[in-house]
């Protein structure tokens, strides 16, 4: 096999699930280039071709009906099912069938080509539609067409020995697609489209296999059986790796797996310093599928459940039962002592699929989060009702985002109490130890923290947004990301202020921003005496390791020294040097 | 003796599509499902273009975003029930917002 003749190339995408896999590719969707398009060599072949088409149509319909039954059995929710009905209807559509037959007869082409032509004709029609959403529905027709074409290939398909497992390459994978895969044979995913919130990403993370999405052209350059490396942490895919690259990645994979194993040892242990100072460790999650990962990686509880994702990727707004179904998987879970649910934190424009461009110029500072909820009270109450109903399942904390002043928290609490009383009047059982807290992320909240502390049971510092607002940086503007600095003296002083005020008022102070999961900052955060650090579950073991290897005494000394420094670079190099000295294994000289 | 074009067997009504997403795939599927329940033939017309109500692609290509006015014509013995079924479906915004 002339492998060395195949050029090695690297494609960069979005790493959505960490890890490294070295394996063989399996191209899930057939590309156009692999589909035969030809003219029929004589009119006598037309009726046979028509028969082929009708047979493929019947097979496609049967497969979809089978799939519908299978998914119905899984009971995972009704969302994928209607799509299947739509595809079945497309395949039964008289116009679709007649057009294709006409193409075969009049143009004397093979069935694949005829189907492709029909789909393209519809594509032309849809391209003229102004409404983005309706125009996008062409994908359903393309999907139906693709299925028919795949069935036309029938037994001619390259038979894949999935053997020890393959890396799935596709342009995109729908829930229906992944439902069909032999998941135990899948070693990794690489797709053209998608990102962190794609269905494929969720599946990959929950079964802990590497995945890189958003590669744009992977399906064009990879063939089934090609050698491929997926680096899900770096977001890199290497096709036809030469022996040297292969060796390097085998080593990297070995190290990654060893680190994972080592670290998991720390997961089980409590986050207590050598001088017996304990910190609660929370997990930040977006999807309920991440709960097992939180437990596995040693979270004491859930410090942040981002509920926005219950609203995204849906056509209709989730109702109370939809919310409750999610919260049931998060509250009162075995292995997790508490769950902090943050109420909806997006803007109105994410809520309704963009129909009219009423885009805000500065969405970060616009009508979102608690502001949006206090305006759309009915919507807010749906979520609150579900949260309250879930409270009976275990220890629950509810957290309001983007609170900028006293009126907001009082109004939010008023509505919360109203909903609570409504439910109690109906005889609904509620938990009796629900805690109410707020995200400290808006600078004004830091300044009036003393008053805010009187209104709540806890604070949770959202450093991601706090740093952005305080330093006046747009986090997603590439030109200024270099200014985004958790170790900026202003940031550290604000955090200290919040913690001190919170403790003086007798409430808990947690941190749920990315900063909490950075081992390099752990000692500083220990010194600040935060009660809880909540982070991406994968970051927990490393942070616990640092905590267990440090003492509160040293951490406070470190913090004291840092607070005397006035520039970010001084602080950064000082902290860096200290961490390297104390934990040489975890902070190698070349950087983490 | 009733002729094919007996007035009793034809029902015509115009509706406004009020749900946010307009007539997208899921909605079109519900319309086709409804049309298939009756013996009567269903035709959907908008801006002078008419399509068969049993054709999901026909309905989708009719292109009805929110605010569109759609005329439904039903011809057949059970046209009365059919048009009522469509009316109910549309009034309920196809079960969406």
Task: Give a structural overview.
The complex is a heterodimer of chains A (592) and B (97). Chain A contains 24 helices and 16 strands. Chain A is of the alpha/beta class. Chain A has three domains: 3-29 and 171-257, 3-Layer(bba) Sandwich (Glucose Oxidase, domain 1); 33-156, PtsI, HPr-binding domain (Enzyme I, Chain A, domain 2); 268-582, Phosphoenolpyruvate-binding domains (TIM Barrel, Alpha-Beta Barrel). In chain A, the strands form two sheets. An eight-stranded mixed β-sheet of chain A has the order 1-8-7-3-4-5-6-2. In chain A, strand 7 (227-231) and strand 8 form a beta hairpin. The longest helix of chain A has 29 residues, at 46-74. Chain A is globular and about 90 Å long. Chain B is an alpha+beta fold. Chain B has one domain: 2-Layer Sandwich (Histidine-containing Protein, Chain: A), CATH 3.30.1340. Chain B contains three helices and four strands; from the N terminus they run βαββαβα. Chain B has helices at residues 25-37, 56-62, 79-91; strands at residues 10-16, 41-46, 49-52, 69-75. In chain B, a hairpin with a 2-residue loop joins strand 2 and strand 3. The N and C termini of chain B lie far apart (46 Å). The A-B interface holds A 82-83, 85-86, 89-90, 93-96, 122, 125-126, 129-131, 133-134, 137, 140-141, 315-317, 352-353, 355 and B 20-26, 28-29, 32-33, 52, 54-58, 60-61, 63, 65-66, 96-97.
By secondary-structure content and strand pairing, the structural class of chain A works out as: alpha/beta
SSE sequence of chain B, one letter per element: EHEEHEH
| DSSP strand tally of chain B | 4
The overall average pLDDT of chain A, rounded, is 86
What gyration radius of chain A follows from the Cα positions, in whole Å?
A: 27 Å
